[in-house]
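Colleagues,

For the teaching module next term, I've prepared a clean inverse folding example: a structure given as tokens, and then the sequence designed for it. I'd like students to try predicting residues themselves before seeing the answer, so please don't circulate the second half yet.
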């Protein structure tokens, strides 16, 4: 990259690492790198250690596939959660978005992606098998499909719905309040509440 030709090699490498982050352009990457260099040593070490520790300790919950630093996440082990309903989302950030509404009290299942032939992501590449295993346990009565209302999210919801129907499970889809093509993480609390409350059977 021509604009980094006069940078010291370690700084150039740092800028390149920041530039690989989603939504971070070259200018932003440079600003972040220079900010890191301006930090006191202890603060910079704490920043680096936080990255290493998160990468080392955070993993998928053995039940719902959400992120946790324990064997099972706090939602799956929560005694006050409604155990007969699972809300299926594509990303861990979507769990946080729905939890903000404080209206949903069931369990979750995180797919970690959506079916996307264009990006070479098939059903076996996301956590669909784990969802089916949970449903087959016999405790689940309803599965709410809360993938994003875009083409890939809708296709994923329909695919999973077809797999669940023969099992006699009620499958619903969030609808009212979430515009087509938008993302759950950017929806406000009231909109998410209406979406959950206005879900329809698939």
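(Answer key — instructors only)
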């Amino acid at each position: 990259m021509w604009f980094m030709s006069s940078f010291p090699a370690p700084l150039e490498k740092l800028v390149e690492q920041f530039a690989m982050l989603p939504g971070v352009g070259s200018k932003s990457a440079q600003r972040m790198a220079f900010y890191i260099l301006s930090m006191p040593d202890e603060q910079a070490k704490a920043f680096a250690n936080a990255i290493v520790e998160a990468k080392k300790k955070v993993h998928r919950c053995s039940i719902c596939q959400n992120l946790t630093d324990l064997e099972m996440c706090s939602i799956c082990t929560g005694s006050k959660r409604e155990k007969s309903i699972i809300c299926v989302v594509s990303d861990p950030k979507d769990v946080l978005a729905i939890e903000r509404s404080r209206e949903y009290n069931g369990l979750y299942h995180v797919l970690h992606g959506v079916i996307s032939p264009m990006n070479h992501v098939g059903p076996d590449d996301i956590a669909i098998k784990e969802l089916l295993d949970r449903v087959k346990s016999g405790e689940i009565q309803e599965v709410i499909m809360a993938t994003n209302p875009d083409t890939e999210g809708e296709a994923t919801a329909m695919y999973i719905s077809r797999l669940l129907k023969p099992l006699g499970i009620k499958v619903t889809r969030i609808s009212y309040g979430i515009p087509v093509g938008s993302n759950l993480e950017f929806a406000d609390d009231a909109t998410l509440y209406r979406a959950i409350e206005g879900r329809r059977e698939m």
